[in-house]
Fold these 2 entries.
Entry 1:
Amino acid sequence: MKNMKKLIGTVIAARDSPTPSEFKLVITEIENSIPLRKGQFIAVESADVDGMLIATVTNIMKTNRYFESAEAVKEYERSGPLTTIFPADRWEYILAEAKPMGRISPSGRLERVTFPPGPGDRVFLATPEMLLQVLGLDPSGVNLGKLLHHDVPVTLNLTRLFQKHVAILAISGAGKSYLTSVLIEELLMRKPEQGRVAVVILDVHGEYTSLATASDSTKSDFSEKTTVINGPYIQLGVPKLTSYNFASFQSQMSYVQIRELNKIIKKLRGMSGKTGKPYDLNELIGMIEQSEMNPRTKEAMMGWFYDLESTQLFGFEEHPSLKERIRVGEATIFDLREIISLRKKQIIVNYLINSLFNLRKRGEIPPFVFILEEAHQFCPEGPAISKGIIETIAREGRKFYASLVLISQRPVRLSTTVLSQLNSQIYLRITNPYDLKLIGQSSEMVDKASLDTITTLNVGEALIVGNAVSHPIFVKIRNRYSPSPQISMSLEEIAKKYEGKSP
Ligand SMILES: Nc1ncnc2c1ncn2[C@@H]1O[C@H](COP(=O)(O)OP(=O)(O)OP(=O)(O)O)[C@@H](O)[C@H]1O
Ligand SMILES: [Mg+2]
């Protein structure tokens, strides 16, 4: 019976409708008290529109003739509720406004409608089959939850979702990290025959490490497929770095200095090629010291390299070896919670993305999805060490199947260049007017009504727009299978612990 169309109402003739862009209907079939909700999808069978017309409910109104005159209501209610005198409740009816999305053509595609439905046309709830088709969902895609108000799983096609990168934007506490965990689970659960990717997570607060926790049930156990790399273990391999890489760490470097550095690196690489021994920053600094550069240039360069050395991020070789570590169907979590310095974190992100992108271009690692939390810290509108490479991968990544998922609570602080390249957007609750304005401007798919709804979303409810779906949809994010991160302690608990008063 699930596939049967369920009748709910009839199109009515109102003052300015129906038109190809809006129509009204009256609810005729009331089984429960709320038969229809704002945002729900409906279908109209119309003689004038070939195939089924699909629409979204944009507004719902209740009305009742008996209560239209203020004077009459007041007068009658003196002697008790109006409903005890007249059958007034029988005159209550529900009107809905709807906006056509298009029609499902006989070939199953959604096409624009240029002709309105007719008054008297019958209106049904859209069936799961219709929605799968119309919204461009893929039964073997990434299952993020259920379509709000419908019993339809939101399964996003992998290619459509990641081909042009993803933005996950919302205020703090709206459920970005939770949703991202669900997304990671889905990627890890894929079978080789469905097409798998490698997942790399830059975990600024250590929120994803619980994915590596073993569990009794196989459904919730992702520990075999997850590796956590602790921040202090990360080491950047100096022999892999070019003069341009160093210049991206140190933005004051001039073109002449980059050229000088290039010569030195060439020399070091030549020597290391002969001896088979790698080199580190100290050796590079030694070579700069011995070189015949202009003394002022030399002094500045040495200062910068001593400064880089003091970050303790650099060494003879790369830890972990990215080529060996990044594997298909597995997640690698870089847990940076112990690294406080933003500059250090940006250098790590710069190195990781750059190296992964190069490995990917050479086909030495599988297609990957790089998930970046607190993205506004790494590709802000202003300058940042990691910004250039993120912009590059945002522009060119898709050619090489290297995708970004950028998560942020401050969209307005994100680089607009990067933001414009993130073509699938997932918004959870957002309330900041500047952020909302930016979203309205940057995504033509988000209309005024959807923007208003973003401000009222509950925790775990999201709006998905862009490349991943054929039409904007609201989703109730599913529960995660893996254990949630430890719930943080209350202020009272922390305070008691500090004073040694906790049991
Ligand atoms: N879909 C969901 N179902 C159930 N609980 C959820 C859901 N989404 C979020 N939560 C809960 O809401 C709280 C906040 O979620 P989360 O940590 O994902 O927010 P956030 O957007 O990442 O916030 P921040 O910007 O501060 O990192 C968590 O306790 C989480 O368990
Ligand atoms: Mg978070």
Entry 2:
Amino acid sequence: MPDKVKLGFIGSGGIVRSHLEQGLKDFKDVDFVAWCDLNEATAAARKEQVGGRGEIYTDAEEMLDKARPDAVFIMLPPFAHGKAEDLVVARKLPFFIEKPVAIDLETARRTAKGVTKHKLITSVGYMTRYRASVQRVLEILKKQKPVYLHGGWVGGGPQVYEGIWRWWVQKDKSGGQFLEQTTHTTDLARYLFGDVTHVYAVAVRDRKKRPSFYTIEDASMVQLTFANGAAGNLVSSCSTSQGGGVRLEVQATDMRAMFTGWEQSVEIQMPDGERITIPGEDNIFAKEDRAFVDSVKAGKNKGILATYEEDGLKATEIAVAANRSMETRQVIELKKL
Ligand SMILES: NC(=O)c1ccc[n+]([C@@H]2O[C@H](COP(=O)([O-])OP(=O)(O)OC[C@H]3O[C@@H](n4cnc5c(N)ncnc54)[C@H](O)[C@@H]3O)[C@@H](O)[C@H]2O)c1
């Protein structure tokens, strides 16, 4: 691998802007060779953001064949996944992909199979795993038994249906709030407590008057059973104007950890009155991007904490199971999915 890793982007919207802003644009060991987006102006804005580096494309296949990146960032909304991954896997390229990796199991399983077959380096944008707060709680949990966790993403929801909020409120495009947004907490729950075996979910609908294209649930509660016997409950709400925010309470036999905010600051309570407080970082995307670029350069995992074939796939399975449970009112056993 040459000193500089040539990066190409498929999907160049808001989340790419954030990755660049938080540090990626200043990485000395990358070359921005291509920006692909269905909307040419969006790709042009990213090119502008890095001082005019890279070519603009509106077709992913053309971009991959002409720009020949060493690694690809797949930064698409849930409904747009599938074709881009097929193209990237066929070319055996390492890729970073934003969460959630897919809206359906078929896409996630097909991609995971290709990744495993070709032993590709992958990273999924579950940036929460890289936080000092999360690492500390993970460390403490190694010596304890997990008991339960409870949290989620609670707010009033979008007020205007423009930009991302247009696709976000459509169930067949975003997969719903649990699949699209609370997936960060689902992944955190798996990271801390391990694999999930059963999912049961209840949807709340018709709380507010909505336009006809608004098809996601107003809220949901998702009950998780972990393989180690612990339990979890995750709430998502976009219909409660007085908020609640992002939070996760983690209870183990001798520890209570309370994560709050998007930045996952934590307050940890231990026996004998011991208290540990760790604030969340502002520029967490830079940390996960560093791990991905280092891994591409090394040709092996150098610090990636969430991979497609394991973590992206499993979070998708949990979310798809929750969506199915909301419809069928049945408990879904993941191994029967
Ligand atoms: N990690 C995080 O905290 C975080 C935060 C925000 C968004 N995200 C995730 O990032 C993903 C993208 O979100 P966003 O906010 O950038 O959305 P966005 O709507 O701003 O950008 C998505 C872009 O993809 C383009 N696109 C759609 N289909 C395409 C295709 N087939 N080929 C090329 N371009 C295509 C659209 O034109 C759009 O510009 C979502 O899955 C979202 O959940 C993650």
